[in-house]
């Protein structure tokens, strides 16, 4: 009899769980009263700082108006996704952090890296320096990552306590809800350093350019996710106690797909032992004795590009000492693509014969179109302040100071931390 009653109760409870309405992340929760200094680093890939005025983003605008906003943040060169995320995380320029591009050739182990090679993305041999989540873990704090380049690899013998293999199809709201759930963990398990990543705006920019409705819609979606995060923090009584740092890795330039430099029109690709192709720039590793031939040919013939010997790359790029940088680096002019004859796909004409613009990055990091976003809000930050532009290598030291961590050696300074922190 007793067993039958227990079974009936179990069936009733199970039926209720299956039919009960979902309790959203914003629902009233038990206040979190034992929060340590906490940073949530949020990346909105490809978000240009001028988008804040150009498009509607009420939640992000609110955070910028109430907290600290930089006029812009200068990305590291090259203005690509993986190098700049890892620069933000380590405070090291790509020349020093190993992630010199999205697509890399490493002579030291004769291997190539790309974002699509998931096994290599998770291999710590590529990721040099010490990202902020490793700094936290080494000093007794827990970290958690809902996507961020580098968080899938063991670096310096450490990983985030919580991390996720990258899945761009994972819904944004569920990413936010997971972050909120981590903040509800018991104090000893709760992460103090959290990363969160959104790719929508970058995709919208690539698909149709920075002036497109695609970007407007993408920003609206991401802003809704930020609103969900803010409301979730408020429902837990910690909105004014968590430090939000919202950044982008680079901007976006409008490109005409017909404006493409086909590199093997100007030199024989067989003269190179490796070529690492990236948006807006290419690393060429010449075969022995071929460097001057390749350089002279490109320098004299190739249009719409800047051609540098590795040792002659401008100092302002902070780029050129890593062995993963080719002996010759080719950088396109803003709005131009670069490819090979084999890889080239001519643009298809649209039905009305109008140009279908797209978007790209990877160009000179000093260009206005490549500028990145920095917005911060929380107890550690000044209120209602707009600060002068700064380089993204400074973000690591800001996070380390908030979390009371001893920073690892890095290329950033301390002036930015003083400008944005209370």
End-to-end CA span: 66 Å
Helix content: 25-40%
* Radius of gyration using CA atoms only: 23 Å
Give the strand order, joined by hyphens, for the main sheet. 7-6-8-1-9-18-2-19
Count of beta strands:
20
Structural class computed from helices and strand pairing = alpha/beta
Q: Mean pLDDT score, rounded?
A: 92
The global form is globular
Our count of helices gives 13
Give the DSSP E fraction (strand runs of 2 or more residues).
15-25%
Instruction: Characterize the biggest β-sheet.
Output: 8 strands, mixed
List low-confidence stretches.
1-25
If you had to describe this structure to a student in words, what would you say it looks like?
With 422 residues, the chain is of the alpha/beta class. Helices cover 30% and strands 18% of the residues. The protein is built from 13 helices and 20 strands. Strands 7-6-8-1-9-18-2-19 form an eight-stranded mixed sheet, sandwiched between helices. A four-stranded antiparallel sheet has the order 12-13-15-14, with helices on one face. A two-stranded parallel ribbon has the order 3-20. Strand 12 and strand 13 (281-286) form a beta hairpin. Helix 8 (172-183) packs parallel to helix 10. Residues 1-25 have low confidence and may be disordered.
